[in-house]
Amino acid sequence: MYKVLIVDDEPKQREGLRMFIDWELYGFSVADTASNGEEALEKYRIHSPELVIADIRMPGMDGLQLIQRLREEDPQLHILILSGYADFEYAKIAIANRTDGYLLKPVDEDELIQYLHSIKKVMDEAKKASLWQDVSKEWTREAFIQSILSGAMDHDEFTLHEQADRLELLWKKYQVLLVVSAQNEKNDKNELIVLRRKLNTRFEECGRGYVFSHHGYVGVLLKEPLLEVEYDDVYQELQGSGGAEITIVLGDRVQELSDIPHSYTSALELIKLQFFFDRGRLLSGELLSKIRSHAAVAELGVQEKSSDSVEEHLYYAMESGNLDAVKQWIVEFGHTLIRLRLNEAEIKQRFVELLTLIYGRELKQRPELQNQCKGYCDQVADIYRVRTIGEMFKHAESLLQSIAPSSGEDTGKHREVRIMLDLIHRNFRDNLKLETLSGVFNYNSAYLGKLFKNETGEYFNTYLDKVRIENAKGYLEDGLKVYQVAEKVGYTNVDYFHAKFRKYVGTSPSAYRKKVGNE
Questions:
Q1: Which residues, in sequence order, are CB contacts of 35 under 8 Å at separation 6+?
Q2: CA distance 345 to 330
Q3: DSSP structure string for 233-277
Q4: Of 176, 235, 156, 180, which Cα lies nearest the Cα of 202?
Q5: May I ask the CATH class of domain 171-297?
Q6: Which member of 59, 156, 338, 432 has the greatest number of CB atoms within 10 A?
Q7: In the Cβ-directed half-sphere of 69, how many Cα atoms lie within 13 Å?
């Protein structure tokens, strides 16, 4: 419906015209009426009507003055004037001032309807033309942005600025915002439509930038950089309720049209690094600078634990049932891989290898875990589908907890020693070291060794050797060769095994096997 404002100083004429015809039948509605020119201007600014029907003769501001003022407000406004026979010459002047026509009083219904038909037709055509122009302009604006981002704009700087000015893209500052979601990455068209609609509402409708799609991403070319205080609000608004998890990144701020690709590239770089950050926040170019700064500090020669050392600590933390330590060493393992400059795919691969290795070691100790093999392996493979390193830490922790030996409810004073004894008896074949276990229990190795000696009466290494030799005697009694036995009980050097065996048994392994074989 097109809105109409009726202006006449005579109340009967004014209200009579309002009730004269069924305005809605012809595509119009009377928004309001006014009794003089000043009131007409005030109500015009309130209602923004498309058609004004005004008396030519009114006290104060007459019809001609009103027309002139209305034309200053809106050159495209449609105006019909009302006049008596005596005002015909006056009316001709009004017509010359681009009014759509005049109606003699008393108003003829058919004549008014005829005017309404013709005015509506003109307005409908203008509306269609304007709509098409807006759609065309939006399309060419997006195409222009896409061309800049892809480097396809090979025009000289003057032509580039001229085109940008025509498309209302010649600004003092620019910044690229990109949005990625799981569905977005799968080219889900419905998700792309929803994202564009949200971005349009948040940024384009209020004149803060223009939405575009490029190489599968949905983004906004921002007219002014997004303020940090807006980050959480923007993230929550675009995330929405029940929607897929999204990542929002902001490229660097730039001041020239030609630098827009740099802002886009820096945003893409952040997308590649999204794995390393927690969800639920917007990632900015400033954050990328901080990452580089931390990387530079890491290159100054800071000593880090080796990856193998972390793996060993993690295994024994799980073996001991120390789930807090399991969590700690999972995070440490991940951070070690980051410091080694591994990328997302490499880190996930190393975690899969770690979880598989630990399961294999546990399976040797506890054959009953065989029943969990398929389910465990399937869940390990899910590592490749997690979207952040934080999610991967939680997933790995959950998996290790599911196969960790029960630690019972032992809360005695020297619970750590009892756990160490259990570890020795179950893992004597491994390269067990007091230093490794001290890391698991978060104790100084000297203190832990003293605690072990006070509780058992033996030094840690002595107790470990005795357990190994005792198991070696069993293997020798089964008829295994000496080098095989040495390997099975954790000695890589056969001569060293000979020395240890003789020390604790009083004879060589060969002599012991021969003796028990003759008995």
A1: 7, 8, 9, 11, 14
A2: 17
A3: HHHHHHH-SSPPPEEEEE---BSSGGGHHHHHHHHHHHHHTGGGS
A4: 235
A5: alpha beta
A6: 432
A7: 16
- pLDDT tens digits for the chain (519 residues)? 899 999 999 998 888 888 888 999 999 999 999 999 999 999 999 999 999 999 888 888 888 888 888 988 888 899 998 887 656 666 667 666 678 888 888 888 899 999 999 999 999 888 776 655 554 555 688 888 988 888 765 556 777 788 888 888 999 999 999 998 765 455 556 777 888 889 999 999 999 999 998 887 899 999 998 988 888 888 888 886 455 678 899 999 999 988 999 999 999 988 888 888 777 678 886 765 665 555 444 444 434 455 556 777 777 777 777 778 888 888 888 888 888 888 899 999 999 988 988 888 788 777 888 888 888 888 999 999 888 888 999 999 999 888 887 654 444 446 678 778 877 887 888 888 888 787 777 777 887 888 888 888 888 899 999 999 999 998 988 888 999 999 989 898 999 999 999 999 899 998 888 887 655
**Quick check: helix, strand or coil at residue 54?**
strand
Q: For the chain, first and last CA: distance in Å?
A: 113
> What tokens were used for 119?
């005015």
Q: What CATH code is assigned to 2-107?
A: 3.40.50.2300
Please report, for the chain, the start and end positions of each structural domain, with discontinuous segments joined by +: 2-107, 171-297, 307-403, 418-518
Kindly calculate the radius of gyration of the chain based on its CA atoms and give it in whole angstroms: 41
Q: What is the 3-state secondary structure (H, E, C) of 62-100?
A: CHHHHHHHHHHHCCCCEEEEEECHHHHHHHHHHHHCCCC
Phi first, then psi: what are they for 210, rounded to 5°? -130, 135
φ, ψ of residue 100 to 5 degrees: the values are: -80, -10
Place of tokens 């802002």: 263
Residue 292 CB partners (closer than 8 Å, separation 6+): none
Q: Which amino acid is at 212?
A: F
The Cα–Cα gap between 182 and 385 comes to: 11
- Which residue has tokens 């390393």? 276
SS3 (DSSP) at 55: strand
